[in-house]
């Protein structure tokens, strides 16, 4: 089939300046404007998933950015001053990593929009593309709050940023559409279906975003439905969490596309390296089963730092998106306190709901969202290149 190269240059759209170092390129070997087979559209979806997993030339920092801004990390070394700016909440508009955090999530959004417009795409495939779009916008919201909203019908050109509330509404609409059209999670083939969006993956992310929007009752309804589906369960050993995972994207050692586990290990001590924060570790009770997720015994040999081992240190970490314990915590917050008791019974813990969220979901890219709900006001500035290219982006 004739190849179609889709070059997403910021100078033609609104994402960055025309500086070649800030260009985002996406190449699809398919003509998305023509009728395509189911297999062809699935290939386009794979490309969209790849951009969720590896959004930029520094994918690990794009993924880790909100966690760096939050309070679960204890820095061991900042090799990049840009990460120190992020940690200290003083990122300037000209920061080079800031440009990656902005434009490269739009690459996934562009790929999703392309799939949505394919004439022969099925409802399921369109739903999966909308999930990708929703998750990408959630990453942008976490960093910037209000950003330009681009859907499949948007005409290229300068676009003003929507409000944070409008971005959340857009995400919720996409997730509701995805929930209604993607096939359900097949528990008999869990190890495979955990790697691509399902109805339940859309529902789990919807519960999270509804909570962020302030609709905890609606969030609790979605969470309870997932819990009662019986397809997922809290693992007795949190190091073996297969039964908990609703969605993750698989890391690949050959591509080295999952390096956050390495950066959160002592192996990265001479580069950019993050240990677990002292006050996070203080939440671990004597018998808490989550102790297995931290290299506590190794601290005397690692400069007194304790590292998380939730992820592989071999550049092949999976990217956790949703797990069932989060649904128990959302349901508890919505008023079903029995769900907190159930989780604590398995984890052998007796923390407050807020602290259970912090410990249970640590290093899963949601802590910053929780801090924002508690009153944190900091958000990243738009990249200078993006503002130069789009005079509506101020």
UniProtKB/TrEMBL annotation:
<feature type="domain" description="SusD-like N-terminal">
    <location>
        <begin position="41"/>
        <end position="209"/>
    </location>
</feature>
<feature type="signal peptide">
    <location>
        <begin position="1"/>
        <end position="23"/>
    </location>
</feature>
<dbReference type="InterPro" id="IPR033985">
    <property type="entry name" value="SusD-like_N"/>
</dbReference>
<keyword id="KW-0732">Signal</keyword>
<protein>
    <recommendedName>
        <fullName>SusD-like N-terminal domain-containing protein</fullName>
    </recommendedName>
</protein>
<dbReference type="InterPro" id="IPR011990">
    <property type="entry name" value="TPR-like_helical_dom_sf"/>
</dbReference>
<dbReference type="Pfam" id="PF14322">
    <property type="entry name" value="SusD-like_3"/>
</dbReference>
